[in-house]
Automatic annotation (TrEMBL):
Gene3D superfamilies: 3.40.630.30. Residues 17-179 form the N-acetyltransferase domain. InterPro entries: Acyl_CoA_acyltransferase, GNAT_dom. This is GNAT family N-acetyltransferase. It comes from Collinsella ihumii. It holds the Pfam family Acetyltransf_1. Signal peptide: none annotated. It comes from the Bacteria.
Amino acid sequence: MENTTASPDGRARFERVETPEQTRALAELAGTIWREYWPTYLGEAQTEYMIEQFQSLPAITRDMAEHAYEYWLVRAADDNRIVGYTGGHVEAETNRFFISKIYLLAPERGKHFASAVIAFYEDLCRTRGLRAMYLTVNKGNELGIRAYEGKGFATIDAVETDIGEGYIMDDYIMEKRIS
């Protein structure tokens, strides 16, 4: 596949989402992952609201068309199964890549696919001449915070973002500089 990139460690492959069929598959995958993970942290109502606002087919299509988001399905290199997805966009004004999404299916967590995603973004940033990459992580996601710190990210800010309907995203902004 010409729209596929291997991770530097050979663990995963990244299939760029380009077609309407891939975009639909991505939205379905996003709904599955969000419903298995986030209700514990956010509750059912906020999870469903956030899926509709940020992870649904209309939201993904809008972000790709209007905000230059790029998405990839993450596949296991050994058998090509889909293990998750990731996406984000270049922030030209800061010369950084904003990693908006790194989400894995429950049975695939703890198998180092997230590490492969971070390595993929490090290579992408180097190739594109970007000085850093950054992401937001929920302040209650202690496992995620520790994992990002272990990969060289540092907390550079804390933000509370009103996303409507009375919901607030309470996040840390974590950045990793690219040498």
